[in-house]
């Protein structure tokens, strides 16, 4: 006889939700030419490889399909000046990016195509998003840049509450004013953000035709590898702040973001519902995804929430993967039902037992 359990799992413990980390110095400088591995204040994407050496600094390389080397800062910046010295990759459809991204899905972009988006001369996309609202493509602008695949340039953002300025080698190429919008497609980016550096392939055959066209066409991998280089990053925050906190409720504006110089403990109980993933749960708990992942190593950004094959197969041989969400015992928030066989009672508690057959 096989015993089948229909279970409500409740794994809820008291947990501290620290605010997101900021910068306590008036100037932050990272010289990637002097590094041999990813610095501790940066995060390397899963399965990615970035090399570091003089004289070019961080080397991001795509050698085959599905590679996307990326790093991003552990710390957040809430306004200030961000400078990146970089040389971008060649290759049609290959996108090199230096992007500011917040947990509230505010975004500021420098994006480059390996063939200048199909243009006849050097070009870069400057773009912005507020609260994840993609809207129309008319927010983007394509200023000229001299041979970005062959030369290092300093790409800077002067990001302030009232306006945002993109500049190349000290020359302003675009200015955006804060229009005060709190809804719709033209919201001004204004929440603490991290700097993301890296590459991805928009010219892959699996990408949507519109994406491929935007990126300059399909990528010819017979000409791989494609490499981009970042020599250095310099950040001057508008105000030094050791940590930031989003109050609840949060109205989405910069004035509501709280600067804190101490650890803040918040309630962190959460009931997982169908369709949740790590990113959604982190946002609902007003913590960043890395904080969530640090205590829940299996947390994923896709709809599965966990890497089911790598984690669950150790414990059971049959899983209803469409309706099952689970955490290690360290997970701080859990409420979900599931059906499965051969459960390891060392790792979970079950509250209702039925369906013998």
Automatic annotation (TrEMBL):
Keywords: Signal. Pfam families: Glyco_hydro_16 (PF00722). GO terms for cellular component: fungal-type cell wall. The keyword Signal applies. PROSITE patterns: GH16_2 (PS51762), PROKAR_LIPOPROTEIN (PS51257). InterPro entries: Beta-glucanase-like (IPR000757), ConA-like_dom_sf (IPR013320), Glycosyl_Hydrlase_16 (IPR050546). It comes from the Eukaryota. Residues 1-15 form the signal peptide. The keyword Signal applies. One of its GO terms (molecular function) is glycosyltransferase activity. SUPFAM superfamilies: Concanavalin A-like lectins/glucanases. Residues 13-223 form the GH16 domain. This is GH16 domain-containing protein.
């Amino acid at each position: 006889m096989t015993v089948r359990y229909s279970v409500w799992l409740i794994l809820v413990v008291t947990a501290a939700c620290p605010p997101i980390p900021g910068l306590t110095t008036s100037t932050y400088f990272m010289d990637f030419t002097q590094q041999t591995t990813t610095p501790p204040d940066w995060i390397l994407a899963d399965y990615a490889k970035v090399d570091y050496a003089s004289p070019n600094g961080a080397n991001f390389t795509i050698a085959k399909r599905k590679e996307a080397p990326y790093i991003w800062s552990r710390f957040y910046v809430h306004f200030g000046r961000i400078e990146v010295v970089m040389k971008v990759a060649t290759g049609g459809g290959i996108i090199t990016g230096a992007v500011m991204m917040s947990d509230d899905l505010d975004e500021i972009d420098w994006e480059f195509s390996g063939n200048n988006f199909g243009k006849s001369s050097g070009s870069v996309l400057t773009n912005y998003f507020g609260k994840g609202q993609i809207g129309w493509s008319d927010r983007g602008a394509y200023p000229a840049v001299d041979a970005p695949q062959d030369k290092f340039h300093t790409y800077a953002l002067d990001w302030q509450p009232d306006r945002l300025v993109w500049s190349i080698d000290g020359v302003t190429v675009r200015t955006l004013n804060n229009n005060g919008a709190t809804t719709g497609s033209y919201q001004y980016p204004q929440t603490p953000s991290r700097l993301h550096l890296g590459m991805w392939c928009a010219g892959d055959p699996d990408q949507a035709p519109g994406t491929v066209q935007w990126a300059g066409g399909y990528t010819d991998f017979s000409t791989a590898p494609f490499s981009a280089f970042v020599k250095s990053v310099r950040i001057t925050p508008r105000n030094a702040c050791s940590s930031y906190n989003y109050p609840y409720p949060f109205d989405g504006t910069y004035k509501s973001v709280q600067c804190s110089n101490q650890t803040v403990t918040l309630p962190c109980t959460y009931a997982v519902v169908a369709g949740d993933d790590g990113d959604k749960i982190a946002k609902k708990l007003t913590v960043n995804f890395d904080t969530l992942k640090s205590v829940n190593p299996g947390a994923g950004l896709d709809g599965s929430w966990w890497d089911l094959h790598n984690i669950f197969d150790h414990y059971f041989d049959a899983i209803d993967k469409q309706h099952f969400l689970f955490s290690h015992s360290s997970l701080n928030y859990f409420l979900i039902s599931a059906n499965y066989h051969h459960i390891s009672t060392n790792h979970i508690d079950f509250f209702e037992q039925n369906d013998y057959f």
